[in-house]
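Can anyone check this?
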Amino acid sequence: MGRGSMQKPLALSIGEPAGIGPDIAIAAWQRRTGDRIAPFYLLGNAEFIRQRARLLGLDIAVVETEPQDAIDIFARALPVVNVGDAPTSRPGQPDASSAPLAVTAIRRAVADVSAGLASAVVTNPIAKSVLYDAGFRHPGHTEFLAELATHDGRTPLPVMLLWSPTLAVVPVTIHVPLREAIGQLTSELIVTTSRILAADLTARFGIARPRLAVAGLNPHAGEGGALGHEDQAIVAPAVAALRAEGIDARGPLPADTMFHPAARKTYDCAVCMYHDQALIPIKTLAFDEGVNVTLGLPFIRTSPDHGTAFDIAGTGRANPSSLIAALRLAARMAASQE
């Protein structure tokens, strides 16, 4: 794909170096033609990627470059922008050198998109426990990206969308313990999250009038108050407020009947009240093709919907399908804004 069809490459961060991020980045580049993958460059360390390729038994060209030259290189070699020294971590064995490269790669990806050098940020999986040991203070990628998007002292509310051709879901509360999630849940948070979702589904996914199915918090959406009052007191008023604004929202709906095939045909995205209520169905239905998208930011960000898979890193068994889906979706979203 040349400059005429896409002016800017995608910026792909390496993720946790000891995980499968390097493996699937290499695999995605190898499948660039058959899977029609838009040009991207990998933010990491070129020599480290060469070493991983050799470990995988692959003879590929890896070229150290800068973002503006990545598209010209992409057809013949994997473009890598060096953002730090080669880590000493081995596949499946992260060490103190892992976190600095992982974090710097994310920062640089956002900076490159903000500077107009790349069209979107795509992030490989990180190991949060490794980052926490290095002093990382954010619950995950989503919250870190929101901080990087802070402007004039205002931090946007990041909305985590898990998207696949089969199902799209948004958790209103994200990386917090379940007890805290229930405490955080308010009508205002549901409304704000759903507004951002509806706006980005229109602007970045081309859905003129998004249909939102809003899950109840409690079993059977509270069973009229018999199984909890939160659905009547918090969720239902939020749905009413959304409808008053002209957003096509329904709910609260019993979550246990929202995800079968007939139900999924009635909405574009399910708005769920907590992390597992959203992620269990999509990872069950679309594990290899699910993409994590952060909405509400001034830039596009996608990511594979899986973890670092330390147990298979460096073995050649990692499946790049979710990363390929993330790269393709990022390119599609970027094209919709041109």
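Reply from J.R.: I decoded it. The domain at 1-157+296-338 is CATH 3.40.718.10 (Isopropylmalate Dehydrogenase).
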